[in-house]
Amino acid sequence: MTVLSDAPAPASTSNPRQARRAVWAALVGGSLESFDFYVFAYFSALFAPAVFFPPQDRAAGILASFALIGVSYVIRPVGAILFGNIGDRLGRRKTLLLTITIMGVATGLIGVLPGYGQIGIAAPLLLLVLRLAQGLSLGGEWSGGILLAVEHASPRRRGLYAALPQLGSPVGTILVAALTVLLAAVMPADALAAWGWRIPFLLAFPLLLVSLWMRLRIDETPLFRELVTENRRARIPVLAAVTRHPVAILVALGAALLGIGSYSLMNTYLLSYGQTELGFDPQALATATLIGSLVQLVSIPTFGLWADRIGSARIVAIGAAGTLLIAFPMYFLLQFATFPVLVATMIIGGLLPTLAWAGLGGLMADLFSGPIRYSALAIAYAIAATISGFIPLITALLGTATGQAWWHPGVVLAALSALTLGCAILAAQWRRTDNELRTV
Hints:
The chain has one domain (16-439): Growth Hormone, Chain: A (Up-down Bundle). A two-stranded antiparallel sheet has the order 1-2. It is mainly alpha-helical. 80% of the residues lie in helices and 2% in strands.
């Protein structure tokens, strides 16, 4: 047997009240993270080119605003290194207070940032700085939220508590979509473009206060307190994680690809592909996407309960295998889809990747022990997210190369599924025995 972790993972004592507070704090923080991140993606085409870039070249402004979306993905691994190290040295709670503050303040400041007409070239430069700050905080937020929930949970509820923070993604998406519809309904288009776009960003400030209040009410996790008491913290956790457990990090990274990448494929690329190639109305596509997100509010907790019975790695494997089976039939049917078929496709095609998403936190937390757990999770997730950020571009290039063949998105989804399936099978072989993480 090969020992993967650098030290035994201590058994922790769960306080049910603290566990509930921890999972709610992780969920609300994850929702704020998702809201803050996606609100820029939704509104960037509307406001960024006209407000923050020279008015003489609108096309260049659009390209630059979309490039700012990519910047926040590329910087994530740097945030993972920074906050992973802090999380394993100073604690999960302190790190999460820091990451959510950076995210909330950076998002809110976008809402008050002067435009190019007021401060010239400083406007896009300051916007770039704020987007970099958002990306840095994202590098440490997800992993810390998962660990906050998992390390407070009792062993029989770890699968569920690891899944519940994953609700943050659909909740954030729903909030942004609802704001988009509401603002468009109550404001004239010129007012929305002139100043109304600032409202969603300014909402980050009160949402941040709620998240901070919830996180200040919870204790540090029992596992981290034991690491401190027993003096078992790694000196440089990030270095220890990368040098001692590179294979386990690669397994975790591969297991994360479908859960994260399918979102980029179905909620980003499909909106453009469905409109330009399949002829769907943008409102119909947005509605179908919103329905899919609402279904996740029920499916993610359900899959978390299932993970308590059969294990998180098996949940991910089932989701990946199912997605692999439906990848090509789903995109074939979309060629002839009416709106009801589109909605059904989004629900069915979304449920199976959601299995992989719901089980991801538990799978990754089970792979690593306490001294390097935050760093390992942060690095694996950040790299997977960075790769996933390029999936819409890769899919678009494949579509161009194949003459927009109906099966080109299926190739990408099938590849993600196969990679995740293989890594989930490997992860399922790791078991906790006598409080140590070993392979069998």
